[in-house]
Amino acid sequence: MRAEVVERRTRILVVDPEDWCRDFLSSVIRLCGMQEFTMVTTVAEALQALEESTFDLLITDHHLAEQQRLLESVRDRDPSMRFIVMMQRRSQTPSMVYLEHIDYVFKPLRLDEIVRKIRDAIHQKNLRRAEEEIRRLKQTAFRMLR
Hints:
- Helix 3 links the parallel strand 3 (about 55-60) and strand 4.
- The relative contact order is 0.15.
- It is elongated, with a radius of gyration of 17 Å.
- The chain has one domain (about 10-145): Rossmann fold, CATH 3.40.50.2300.
- Helix 2 packs parallel to helix 3.
- It is built from four helices and five strands, in the order E-H-E-H-E-H-E-E-H.
- Strands 2-1-3-4-5 form a five-stranded parallel β-sheet, sandwiched between helices.
- It has about 150 residues and is an alpha/beta fold.
């Protein structure tokens, strides 16, 4: 039996009402070598995009109306989803610290920081996916040996 490797492209969803921020993140994501991303301005548009497709990373602004509901909804759908939450000031206390897989960046965004956070988030998501695949293969092999 031969395991098939399925190449899966990284998909990123960005939710931010500000044009400059979406434009900047679009350029950064392309700079990181990723081509599959969706840009939306509201939580409602984000929830619609999540109904239509799966994503590996969600980048969102902390000040969006219903942002907390968005994160919790995404977490319910995909517990392994990674998040990057953009905040206005370093003095803010994140209200969603109880959710896993969240990282924070502060506006104004710095190119080196956001690139590093995106790459780290995708690396962690891919690592988790690989670990799950190894666990699945081990279970299959164990069942075959019995």
